Amino acid sequence: MTSFLTVFASLMVVVALDAAAEPLPVDMKQALATEKEIYVATRRADGAVSSAAPIWFYFDGTNVYFTTSPDSHKAKRIRRGSPVLISVKGAKGPFVEGTPEIINDLEQVARMGEEYNKKYWIAWVGFFRPRPDRVADGKTIAVKVTFAAKP
User: Fold this and answer.
1) Alpha carbon 50 to chain centroid, angstroms
2) What CATH number should be reported for the domain holding residue 95?
């Protein structure tokens, strides 16, 4: 009986550690799976948070992907190393902070476009969806946002 209790207690510790390591709250993951837009902000050079803008996005269950103009303030701040703050509730938050990475994987951009087609009717008819040729030509940048587990 002692060995059973020891094993059970060990398993409970592992389950508790896995739950604590979840990078996104469950309600945020559920919202990212169903919402049509998110609000994205970045940090200015002085550390202040920018205004949050509504954008379309793709959520793969772990990471958030979106595109933006290479000349946008958002893109310039991301290139400078700003984190990305994402809200599903609105422009005033609450926000979850993630680490952005500009991606040039054209296959991933094509997957984003396919997912946009499923989610947004106007993307399905050919408008406002991520396109590999626009990323390759530098007309659009694609961004992947990852979230770190809370300690």
Assistant:
1) 17
2) 2.30.110.10
